[in-house]
Amino acid sequence: MDIVTRWRGSVHDSRIFRECRLKQRFEAGAFSGILLGDSGYPCTPYLFTPLLNPTTPQEERYNRSHIRTRNTVERCFGLWKQRFRCLLRGMFGDIETAKKTIVACAVLHNMAIDMREDVFSGERDSIEQYSSEPIVQRYIAPSIRGNIRRRQFIETHFQDNTHL
Q1: Are the CB atoms for 5 and 102 separated by under 8 Å?
Q2: How many Å apart are CA 11 and CA 76, to the nearest integer?
Q3: Which tens digits make up the pLDDT trace of 108-159?
Q4: Is the C or the N end of the chain the one with fewer CB within 10 Å?
Q5: DDE Tnp4 domain spans which residues (predicted)?
């Protein structure tokens, strides 16, 4: 949906998100959904993070669901890198060519998904490499509004055992 190839080398996802159009659109109310981020992101009304110290069964269920859902996203990145091995190795040479190659790989990957291209065996094997453990990153203090919205979400959606 949104790809940013502005920086050379490894840049944390939260920095990229902080400076992308998708974030601006969420803040402007263009979307009504919720994004999930790891603890390297601030908790906001539209971006939920895991609870660092869950204390109730509802909070535990929320964290388990959060982890399972985020793992799905991480597996998507793994499949993308398996389909385009140049993304696994890293790219050397001209930065502008590397940026264009990354964007082209993203477009082609999305086209393959839309066309229901078969996943080759190398991709299937890579799916299992991701664990169900939370990814812990540097902590950013959550916003009060984000905490309130996340709390309301947990109270509304995780009161029973249907999310186990």
Answers
A1: yes
A2: 19
A3: 998 988 888 866 544 444 444 444 444 444 545 558 889 999 999 999 999 8
A4: N
A5: 2-110
